[in-house]
Amino acid sequence: MRHIPLKNDTKEIRLFESRVLVTIILGATLIIALITRLSYLEIVRHHYYAGLAQNNRISPIPIPPARGLILDRNGVVLAEDFPVFTLQVVPDRVSNMGQLLAKLKTWIAFNKEDLHDFQRRLLQHKPFQSVTLRAHLSEAEAARIAVNLTRLKGVALHARLRRYYPLGGLAVDAIGYVSRITPSEELGTQAARYFGYRHIGQLGVERSYQKELMGRIGFKDVEMNAQGRAVKILKRILPHAGHNLYLNIDAQMQAIGEQMLNNRPGSVVALNPRTGAVLTLISSPIYDPNQFVDGIREKAYKVLATDPNGPLNDRAINGLYPPGSTIKPFYAYSALQTQWFDPHKKVLCPGYYHLPHSTHLFHCWKPLGMGRVDLKNAIEESCDVYFYHLAFEQGIERMTRYLTYFGFGHRTGIDLPGEYRGLVPTNAWIKASKRPWYPGQTIITGIGQGPLLATPLQLADAVAAIANHGVRMRPQVVRGIVNPVTHNVRYIKPFGYPAIPRHRKNSLKRLIRDMTQVVEGPHGTARGIAYGLPYKVAGKTGTAQLWSVTPNFKGKRVRADALFIAFAPVSHPRIAIAVIVEHAGFGALAAAPIARALMNFYLLGHVHARPQNQARTQVALTGIKP
Amino acid sequence: MTFFERWHLDKPLFTALLILAGVSLVVLYSASGENLRFALSDASRLLVGFVIMITIAQISPETYRRWSVPVFVAGVLGLGAVLAIGAVRFGARRWIAMGPLSIQPSEFMKLFVPMMLSWFFSRYHLPPRLWQIASATLILLVPVLLIAKEPDLGTALIVLLSGVIVLFLAGMGWRTITAVALLGLGAAPIFWAHMHHYQRQRIFVLFHPEADPLGAGYHAIQAMIAVGSGGIFGQGWLQSSQAHLHFLPDSTTDFAFAVFCQEFGLFGNLALLALYLFIVYRGLRIAFAAQDTYSRLLAGSLSILFFFDVFINMGMVAGILPVVGVPLPLLSYGGTSLIIVMAGLGVLMSIHSHRRLVN
Predict the structure, then answer these.
(1) How far apart are CA A215 and CA A200, in angstroms?
(2) A161: pLDDT confidence band, cut at 50, 70 and 90?
(3) Tens digits of per-residue pLDDT, A255-299?
C-alpha cells in the first residue's frame, strides 16, 4: 500500500479545478433554470396562483334569504318562511356518540326514522362537517337543548327558515309548494343562479314566480383551513329577501268552495271577467303541501300518488273534461253571427235526431222530447236535438273556429306552470289524427261530447268572455308583486285577447238573456239555485258523459260529471265561474249550488242569500262564522 | 490568533450559516403557525448542529482520512441492520430505534460515501484508471442498493450522486462518463419497471400535477400555489395562508421553502439562493486551497453535494423535479439530515483550518 500524505501534483490540481469548473457550469445552468422557473411562477403566473391561494383560503358560505310571502287578496298569509331549529352534531367533536344520543333521548322524542337517517348520514359525512340529527325541533325541544347546549360537546342548534303553509292544503294547486333542490334537478344554465339555495318552487305560483320569490342570496366569506373548518369571517354580504306576492285569490272563498266539494274529485275556477283575476282556483281533493317542503317520506307519497281520486292532479288547469252541455252557449254564439240563423225559428224535438239518409239515432237527454223549441228554450232546457240541428247546419269547421276564439284548445296563459291545452277537433287536428271524420262526430261534438276536451279554467275563461262583452282576459293568479323593503307594489296589468268576432248586433245580449233563463226561467235547468237571489245569474249546466278510462273503474262504465258555468250579476258581471264535480251526475244538482255559494259570498259577503238560513248553514258548510 | 482561527472556523462560512439559521427560525415560526415552542425546538436542534459542526472542525482531516474506512463499513453494517431489524414507518424500513432516538443510517452515508471514495482515490495518482473506477463504483453501489431496498429511492439517489461527484472530481475519463451515461439511459426502462407505483406516480405528476390534484399531485400543486402566490415581493412574514391553513403539507420540513416563497417572493428567493451559493462558493474555495487529494476531493464533493441538496429541494418546490423527501439544508426543521449537513460543513471547516504551512 502506497501512502501519499501530501501529494501536490499540479497536474492533479489542474484536473480537479477543471472538473469543478465543469460542475460550476452545470450548476449555473441549473440555477438559471431554477430562477427562470421561480420567476415564471412568481411573476407571469402570479395572478393565477394568487387566485388559487385565495380560493384555498376563502370559502363563500351562502346565507339564504327569506322567501317572499304569498298573501291572498285580503292579506291572509298563505305561505311564509318560518324559523325552525335543526339539531346537528359534529361527530368529530363527540367523544362518545352512544352516550350523547342516550342523553339527547331524554329531551327529545326521536323516532326510528330520525335515528336511521342519522346513522346513514354519519357514514357519509366529511371531517368536521355537521350532521343533521333532527330536521326540526318543536319549540319545547329546542329550548331544552338550548339550555343544556354548553354541556353537550359537538351538538349545535342551527336556526334556519323553513317554508310553511299555514292554511295547509288551501289553494295548494294555485300556490304550489317548495321542495329541496335535489342533485337530479335539472337547473341547466340556471344552476349558478341557485348556488346556495336549498329549496325551489315546484308547482303553482311558487314555481312560476320563483324568480321574484327567491330574493338574492347573501354570502359570508369565511377563511377555511384545509380540513374545512371555519377560522374567521372576513366579509358579509347580506341577503335580499324575496318579493311578496299578492294573489287575486280570496282565501275565504277558496275555503268555502273546497269545503263544499268536501274532497270529492272536482274543480272550481272563479274569475273576475273584466280583469281575468283568478278569485278561486280549486282542484279537489286537496293535499297538505307542508309535507313536501323537507322531502316527503316515501310512504306518504305513495298514499297520495295512488289515491284513486288523484289529489296531486291539478284539475283546474290539467283536468281534461268533455264540456258537455256547457259548450252550447258558445255554439249558439257562433250561429248568432250568421245571416241565415234565426233564433226564433222553432225546431221540433221528438227526443231523438238522425242525420239525413241515416238511421242512427242521437238521443235527447229528455227521452220523450221537448216539442217545438227555439234557441231560448234550447238553452234554458238544454235541448240536445236543437243543438244537433245547429251542429249539422254550422259544420265542424265553423263550430271549432268559434270555440278557438273562446280560448278552447289553447292555453289560457294563466300564470301557473303546466297548463293543458284541451282539445278542439279543428280541421288541422282532424287531418293530423289521420282518421276519417264522420258527420255523426260533428253531431255529438255539437253537445260537447266526442273528442272535445276542456279544462275547468278554459270553461271559466270562456264564460267570462261572454260576460266581458266578448273580450276574453288572460287569467291571472297574482295581483301584484311587493318589494318588501320599499313596499312598492308592481301590479300585473290585465291582458285581454283580441275581441271575439261579432257580426250581428245584440247577438251577445240575446245569448246572455237566454243564459239567464237557465237560472231564472220556469224550465231552466238551474232554476233550483234561483231562490232568493238578489242578483241575476246567467249560466249553463252540463252533464258530461265519459267512457271512463281511469283504471280504478273496471270495464266501460260511463262516468257522468256535473258541470256548471255562470256569471253574475248579469247587468255588470263581476264574477264568472266554472264548477265541475266528477261522478256527480246532473250538473244542476251538484255543481250549481257550489257556484251559487261562491257568487253569493263574492257579491254579497255571505254564502246564503236567505238571511234567516244564513248563519246556521254557513257555519255548517264552511266553519267560518259570518 | 482570532476567535475563528482559534476554533478552526471559516469566518465567512460561519457567518453565512448563522444568517441561514436565523432565516430558518423566522420561516419555521411562521410555517408552524406561529408556534414559539416549535421555533425554540428548531433553535435547539440548530444549536446541536452548530455544536457538532464546531466539534468536528476541531479534528484534523488526517484523522477523518484514517477513519474513512471504519465509518463507511459501520454505516454499511447499519444499513444491513435497518433491513434486518429496522422500524417500519410510513411503509418503509428506514429507521433504527435507539432508545428515544431513531437513527436513519442512510443519511449518514451522504457523508461516509464521499469520505470513503475520497480515501480510495487519495491512494492513487489521478486521473484514476478504469479498474479503480470500477472498484470505486462497486464500493458505492453497496450502500446505494441497500438504501434502495428500504425503499428510500430519494436518499439512494442522493448517496449515489455523492459518490458520482467524487468519481467525477477524481477525474473519471470523459469516455467512461459517456459510456456510463449511455448505459444508464439504456437501463432506465428496467429501472422504471422495478419502481414502486407511488414513485412512478411522483414522476408522472411532475409533468401533469393536475391529473390527480388531491392525490399524487397534491403536494406539487399546493407548493406551486404557495410559490406563485408569493409574487415578486411576497405576502410578508406570517402571511403564508398555504401554511397557516394547512393546505401545504410538510410546511416545516420538505416544503419550508414554499412557505418562504409565499412570504418573501422572488426577491427573497434570490437573496436566499445567493446565501446558499455563497456557502457553496466558500466550500469550493476551501477545496481549492486543500493541500492533499483526500481533503480536496472531500471538500469539493461535500460542497457540490450541498449545492445539489439545495437545488433538489428548491426544484421540487418549484415543480421542476419530482417530489422526493429531501429537506432544504439548515432551513428545514431537521433531524438526522441537519446533523449530517452540519457535520459535512464541520469537515469543510476542519480542512480549511488545518492547513499545514509546508510547501
Answers:
(1) 12
(2) confident
(3) 999 999 988 899 999 999 999 999 999 998 999 999 888 878 788
Q: How far apart are CA A385 and CA A349, in angstroms?
A: 6
Mutate to test the interface with B, among A9, A26, A34, A223 (most CBs of B within 10 A): A34
Handedness of CA B42, B21, B350, B122 (dihedral sign): positive
Q: What is the CATH number of the domain that holds A100?
A: 3.90.1310.10
- Helix, coil or strand: residue B41: helix
Q: How far is A129 from chain B (nearest CA, A)?
A: 17
Q: Which residue has the cell 278510462?
A: A549
- Comparing alpha-carbon positions, the chain B residue that sits nearest to A11 is B126
Mean pLDDT of chain A: 85
pLDDT for the residue A227: 63
Compare CB distances from B246 to A42, A53, A226 and report the shortest one's residue.
A226
- Kindly determine whether residue A7 and residue B293, on different chains, have CB atoms separated by under 8 Å: yes
d(CA B129, CA B172): 8
Are residue A435 and residue A581 in the same domain, yes or no?
Answer: yes
Of A1, A46, A57, nearest to B245 by CB-CB distance is A57
Average pLDDT over residues B42-70: 93
With a CB cutoff of 8 Å and minimum separation 6, the contacts of A173 are: A203, A204, A281, A282, A283, A286, A314, A315, A316, A317
pTM over 0.90? The answer is no
Catalytic residues of A: 325
B311 interface with A at CB cutoff 8 Å: yes
Asked if A42 and B297 come within 8 Å (Cβ–Cβ), the reply is no
The domain tally of chain A equals 2
Instruction: Nearest chain A residue to B214 by CA: give it.
Output: A226
Q: What is the pLDDT of residues A399-453, one digit of tens each?
A: 999 999 999 999 999 999 989 999 999 999 999 988 899 888 999 999 988 889 9
**Residue A411 belongs to a domain:** yes
Q: By residue range, what is the domain housing residue A123?
A: 84-161
For residue A58, being part of any structural domain is answered with no
CA distance A109 to A87: 13
Q: What is the mean pLDDT of residues A587-613?
A: 79
Cβ–Cβ gap A46/B227 under 8 Å = no
Nearest CA in chain B to A43: B231
Say if residues A409 and A289 touch (Cβ distance below 8 Å).
Answer: no
Same domain, A130 and A270: no
Query: Do A290 and A423 fall into the same domain?
Result: yes
Q: Hey, what's the cell of B77?
A: 453494517
Joined grid coordinates for residue B213: 390534484
Take residue B206 and report the three cell numbers written for it: 411532475
Contact between residue B80 and residue B129 where contact means Cβ atoms under 8 Å apart: no
Last residue of a domain, one of A101, A126, A161: A161
Q: Check whether the bond before B100 is cis (ω within 30° of 0).
A: no
B236 φψ region: left (φ > 0), alpha (ψ -120 to 50), beta (else): left
Write the CATH number for A360.
3.40.710.10
The residues with which A86 forms a beta bridge, in sequence order, are A158
Distance from C-alpha of B350 to C-alpha of B59, rounded to nearest angstrom: 6
pLDDT digits (tens, 9 = 90+) for B246-257: 788 888 888 999
**pLDDT (tens digit per residue) in A112-160:** 777 887 888 787 776 666 788 887 788 888 888 888 887 887 788 888 8
Residue B288 contacts A, CB cutoff 8 Å: yes
| Grid cell digits, residue A358 | 241515416
Boundary residue ending a domain (A135, A161, A187): A161
Interface of B with A in 56-75 (CB under 8 A): 62
Tell me if A226 is assigned to some domain.
no
- Those of residues 68-127 in B touching chain A at CB distance below 8 A are 122-127
- Chain A residues within 8 A of B261 when measuring between CB atoms: 38, 42
Expressed in percent and rounded to 5, the helix, strand and coil fractions of chain B are 70, 5, 25
Measured distance CA(A607)–CA(A260) in Å, rounded: 11
Residue A187 lies in a domain: no
